[in-house]
Amino acid sequence: MAGKIFITDVKDHDRVVGNFLVQQKHVPLNKNGKPYVAMVLMDQTGTMDARVWDNAEQIAAVFDSGDFVEIHGVAVSYQGRLQLKVDNVKKLSAETVNLEEFLPVSPRDRGEMLSKLQALLESISDKSLRALVVDRLQDDSFREKFASAPAAKTIHHAYLGGLLEHTLNVVELADRVAALYGELDRDLLLAGGFLHDIGKIRELGCERSFEYTDAGRLLGHIVIGAMMLTDWAQAYPELSEDSLMKLTHMILSHHGSYEFGSPKRPKFTEAMVLNYLDELDSKVQTFKEIAQRDQGNRWSSFQRLFDRYLFLGQPPDSGSPATDKTGPDKKTKKQRPDKPLTHRAFAEQLDESPDEIDKPKEGEDKKQVKPVNQNLFSKQENK
User: Fold this and answer.
1) How many C-beta atoms surround the C-beta of residue 367 within 10 A?
2) Which of 142, 184, 297, 306 could bridge to 320 as Cys pair (CB 3.0-4.6 Å)?
3) DSSP sequence for 109-164
4) Which pLDDT band holds residue 158 (cuts at 50, 70, 90)?
5) What stretches of the chain show up as alpha helix (H) in DSSP?
6) Distance (Å, whole) CA 50 – CA 86
7) In this structure, what CATH number is given to the domain that contains residue 134?
8) R_g of the chain, CA atoms, integer Å
9) Domain range spanning residue 282?
């Protein structure tokens, strides 16, 4: 198989010559003490394991994680999953490739999403608040970063344009909820929806793969976002101190509770609403990604993130039996589908079985395993 090929096109026994991004690379030893190269290759359609068995040390010296490479190899099925047996690797110059062929991209048109978002923000009636948020989208440097950034590394909207898509969804939800509850401050809610995840453009890098920056690891997007807002607000002296304080609180509290990383918990209605809208969109998107990955099945595999199986609604006569709710047999090795994974890190997290989750065992006092984080952090709250 020659020419341009994406990972989801690869089938067992195919001869593959294609360009990929090396997401991971290791050089372990096999059982005979001989080195081999273990890789995870990536493009916009998914990920695939690859192995170099012959001339491993020489080939390993050619490239590293994060490099774009031309791969020559053969697709083989191993333990129910496709992987590439690689014969040769050639490193490519980053300037010669189109990044969007190697990283997942939002299925929605980013230009259209930006236009919709700007129209909503321009409908904010408070002049200084409107200027603060609309000016961001009219700044070319910010606009480019914002339209390209992912909303997460793995869980939801983890693709180029994901932050824009998630932000637009939250702002549209805010607009509809504000129309339903007339007592809400619509201006504040829309501005907060736009700003709540803004720190992610500095938290996550997307030049080669979705990895945390130094600032992302040391500070996190919540703190970064609050700092960005403080910097921007200096150019808008007419913005009231009360509005700035509330917007900052909405950024700091949008994860809802200490256990989910919020420095503060929501303390007024608009902040509480933003927390729920953010969670609503992220959960719906996560469910969509699970349904896409497990398509064709009536029930999903066990989802550690939700601590349950999810009903996907396929017809009973589709030929897909319901998942055994007792979970995988501990003595049986878990089999993965004979196809590439659409999102490796996400898929592996979701494949955890109930046996791997900390749950009270039979006869065990449930109080002994009750999470302690709520009591642990409750004293941090300023009364």
Assistant:
1) 7
2) 297
3) -HHHHHHHHHHHHHT---HHHHHHHHHHHT-HHHHHHHHH--S-SSSSS-SBTHHH
4) confident
5) 56-60, 110-122, 127-137, 140-148, 162-180, 186-195, 200-203, 214-218, 221-233, 241-253, 269-293, 344-350, 373-378
6) 7
7) 1.10.3210
8) 24
9) 104-286
The contacts of residue 32 (CB under 8 Å, 6+ apart) are none
Which are the contacts of 374, defined by CB distance < 8 A and separation ≥ 6? 257, 258, 259
Q: How confident is the model at residue 293 (pLDDT cuts 50, 70, 90)?
A: confident
Residue 83: other Cβ atoms inside 10 A: 22
Residue 184 above 90 pLDDT?
Answer: yes
| All residues at 6 or more sequence positions from 145 whose CB lies less than 8 Å from its CB, including other chains | 201
DSSP state string for 34-54: -B-EEEEEEETTEEEEEEE-S
Residue 349 forms part of a structural domain: no
CA 240, 170, 99, 75 torsion: positive or negative? positive
| 280 shares a domain with 134 | yes
How many residues can be counted in the chain? 383
Q: Rounded distance, CA 278 to CA 174, Å? A: 10
């029930």: which residue's tokens? 299
pLDDT averaged over the chain?
Answer: 80
Write the single-letter amino acid at 356: E
- Predicted confidence (pLDDT) per residue in 66-92, tens digit: 888 999 999 998 877 889 999 999 998
Is the pLDDT at 369 greater than 70? The verdict is no
Q: Are residues 66 and 182 in the same domain?
A: no
250/141 same-domain check: yes
Q: Is 82 helix (H, G, I), strand (E, B) or coil?
A: strand
Give 247-259 pLDDT, tens digit per residue: 999 999 999 988 8
The Cα 100–Cα 286 span in angstroms is: 22
Task: Give the predicted TM-score (pTM) of the model.
Answer: 0.68
